[in-house]
Design brief:
Elements lengths: L4 H6 L7 E6 L2 E5 L5 E9 L2 E10 L4 H16 L4 H17 L2 H14 L4 H14 L8 H7 L6
Antiparallel strand pairs: 1-2, 2-3, 3-4
Helix pairs in contact: 4-5
């Protein structure tokens, strides 16, 4: 039996955690403190696995079902969805940290380590940090891959 929004909202906490199943591995875990967490159980390479999709109501029933369907598609293609989720998160973090401002700071540290004159360091700091402050958070991948320039 599929879950409904009404049944989710009316689910009451008990002394122990309990599950409300939605089918195809998706269920809502209702904790004793009242929190409601989306979980997905799947088998990958003969091993039982579980992944979390977030809490209700931050993740709606429809969104949890979409995430479940995407995870099932990945399993069918031979990819572990939990591992893929982690790889996607790491890639997004790397892209977010690889900005023009980060490269500029690294370059200034390199100049300092090479023992450049104080006036050279100050001039480069002024050029890279002060004049290009509006570009500091611009991701390098977006600049290179899309060949787009930020709107100033």
């Amino acid at each position: 039996m599929l879950l409904t929004l009404f049944s989710i909202e009316k689910a009451k906490p008990k002394k122990k955690s309990h599950k409300l199943s939605d089918g195809n591995g998706l269920y809502l875990l209702v904790k004793p403190n009242g929190s409601k967490l989306w979980r997905f159980r799947y088998t990958f390479v003969g091993k039982q696995n579980m992944m979390s999709f977030g809490s209700f109501p931050e993740v709606s029933l429809a969104n949890a079902r979409k995430k479940r369907d995407e995870a099932r598609r990945l399993v069918a293609e031979g990819t572990d969805p939990a591992r893929q989720k982690k790889l996607n998160r790491l890639a997004a973090d790397a892209v977010a940290k690889n900005t023009l401002g980060a490269v500029a700071a690294e370059y200034l540290e390199k100049l300092k380590a090479e023992g450049k004159a104080a006036s050279t360091l100050e001039k480069n700091r002024w050029l890279l940090e002060d004049l290009s402050a509006s570009l500091a958070k611009w991701p390098i991948a977006a600049s290179v891959m899309q060949n787009n320039r930020p709107k100033l």
